[in-house]
Request: fold
Amino acid sequence: MSDQAFRAREGKLSCEDCSLERIAASVPTPFYVYSSREVVRRFRRLDSAFSAQPHLICYALKANSQPALLRLLFDEGAGAEVVSGAELALALRVGVPPERVVFSGVGKTEWELEAGLQADIFLFHLESEGEAALLDGIAARYGRRARVSVRINPDIDAGTHPHIATGVQAAKFGLDLRAAMDLYHRHREFPHLDFCGIHSHIGSQITSLHPLGEAARTLGKAIGELKGYGLTIHHVDIGGGLGIAYREDPAPEFEAYAQEVLPWLSRSGARVIIEPGRALVGPAGALVVRVLYVKGVQGRRFVVVDAGMNDLLRPALYDAYHRIVPVVKREGEREKVDIVGAVCESSDTFGRDRMLTDPHPGDLLAILDTGAYGYVMSSNYNLRPRPAEVLVEGEAFRVVRAAETVDDLLARELGEKS
Reply:
């Protein structure tokens, strides 16, 4: 799936049919910009890839919870995968039906479980026996039954960064296979829980299909075993985690992904649930920044921009790679530079040893593939206001979240009422 959202036209980078230079003329940098067309295109392609089996795509809000993007996806028929009570409240507020909401997370609190039960959400993913007991007690108080699955940790190495590998033995998530099967076997001890699903999620930014297929195989075998426990599994949730091409290397196609996992699940007759986040919105976003200074230090060239790790944490946190390209192309010889932010941390570096043509103060740069885990991981470190978010629709654009101001930050710091 080649880049669709951001393309150079006559030497100027555009999002869809809208020049980023034109947006930057009225929206102060830094700002995030998203392609509505690309988000919808990617959802429809994933939906089509899984059309051979009943399925539900539950978008993972943790990747990007911008309400304008949520509404695009929910209008297309997406559900929501949430990991906190606030994410649940946001999904319901912007219009996703509760019967399309699944609730994940290793540390759900009592009030979060209660909120999900009161909303009558589709499915809770249980991650421990203690959580099962707590939810069973809450459901008993309300005289209801909660639909649940158990999250299996299959001990599969997804080949991703250790910080985002969730299906290995050392990870905190879910239960190992035998413990999970034991919990299913004792399902009658939890009379207010309906054990109707099974779940696994082995990590994020996975670019090899083999571990995803192995996880699906584990789920398929477990479903067959559960029939012997008197349980019928109606829903099998294979999680998310499909990676994107941050570099030039290709990422797995949605069609190949479906072909890898569906054969292990088709015999079960269960509806397949997928929880994509990055794969839908990552390539649809960019962070647009402006060059402040260009300087040399100890033989290295530094391009200092007006964003920082508070705006985009991934490079500092994971040593993540993002392509960085000029918004307006300049002719001339390219030079090797480090593109760095304004925060007082040496790790505040967006790209090392990158090639740029004669960078100057005032130049605009686009940090690509930041539609996922960008704004949602931003902070006010160094007391820096968070940036604006812009949604592009064809030739038009609109600010869907205004940039924070210094007054906003001071009012919060000083406890002043707005």
About this structure: Residues 113 and 147 are 12 Å apart (CA to CA). The chain has a mean pLDDT of 93. The chain has two domains: 6-34+282-413, 35-281. The first strand starts at residue 6 and ends at 9.
